[in-house]
Write a structure and sequence with these properties.
Elements (H helix, E strand, L loop, with lengths): L2 H4 L5 H33 L15 H21 L3 H7 L8 H19 L6 E4 L3 H25 L1 H4 L2 H9 L20 H11 L3 E3 H29 L1 H9 L11
Antiparallel strand pairs: 1-2
């Protein structure tokens, strides 16, 4: 047991550590908010200084290699740090209350690096010429982001992104055990957050080769991530999640609910 762990909650030093953890969690959350808002502009080529099809061009081989490297870096960070075994090892060195915030901060910084270093490949795969249809497709992409955000709040947005944990730590409350719930979108698909990402990435009135590469690789990673996540959910909730998986579709609501 470390010196920090033996301190009484009311001691000034412990209060300072709890407040520091809370500030860190707040910074991590604000970094996430900036990153996800930038992601919307990056994918849709709106407002942001560097989007998926802008920036200095390079050779096609270099662009593909760099972009795949950036996507792989995010995939490895996102997958490894989310695993229970890594968390168990990691929390031997860091306070458990900030584990999620560190994960969120690392994921956000990795994405920001991707946005910064992404190499555009502007060759056009498709271009919807009809203005009304192009607007419908662009709106559908925005709907994907809305589904994503709503879905995160339907479960526990602030727990998902680490604020709940550091707030409980600051106030001395225990973080409650996870409870299996299926609110709203979760009654129709098991992973509406991932569905929102897929819609947002693929609904593009103009699809470049670079955008296609981004959408295809992230979609492949989403399916891989779902496999890992569902393994963890079965371990956590057992037969309750197995029954849910049997009656509710993974991403698209084509199963009849009973």
């Amino acid at each position: 047991m470390t010196e920090t762990q033996t301190m009484h909650p009311a001691m000034p030093g412990n209060r300072i550590l709890r407040f520091t953890a809370f500030l860190f969690g707040g910074v991590a959350y604000l970094t996430f908010l900036f990153t996800i808002l930038y992601a919307i502009g990056f994918v849709s080529d709106l407002v942001v200084p560097k989007a998926i099809d802008t920036g200095p061009e390079s050779g096609i081989s270099e662009a593909i290699a760099v972009n795949l490297g950036l996507l792989s870096l995010f995939a490895v960070q996102h997958s490894v740090m989310a695993r229970k075994s890594f968390k168990h090892w990691w929390t031997q060195f860091i306070p458990p209350s900030v584990e999620r915030s560190i994960y969120v901060l690392c994921a956000s910084l990795t994405l920001l690096l991707l946005f910064w270093q992404w190499r555009p490949i502007p060759a056009v795969v498709w271009n919807v010429q009809d203005p009304e249809m192009a607007m419908v497709i662009a709106t559908l992409s925005f709907v994907g982001w809305v589904i994503l955000f709503i879905s995160s709040f339907l479960i526990n947005h602030f727990e998902l992104f680490g604020l709940h944990q550091v707030t409980n730590n600051l106030t001395g409350r225990e973080t409650p055990a996870p409870v299996f719930r299926t609110p709203f979108f979760y009654r129709f698909v098991r992973h509406p957050i991932y569905l929102g990402f897929i819609i947002a990435f693929w609904a593009a009135p103009v699809m470049s080769v670079g955008h296609l590469l981004f959408a295809a690789v992230t979609t492949a990673y989403i399916f891989f991530g779902i496999m890992l996540e569902e393994r963890d959910l079965v371990a956590m909730f057992g037969d309750e999640y197995r029954r849910y998986r049997e009656r509710v579709s993974m991403l698209f609501p084509w199963h009849k609910l009973t």
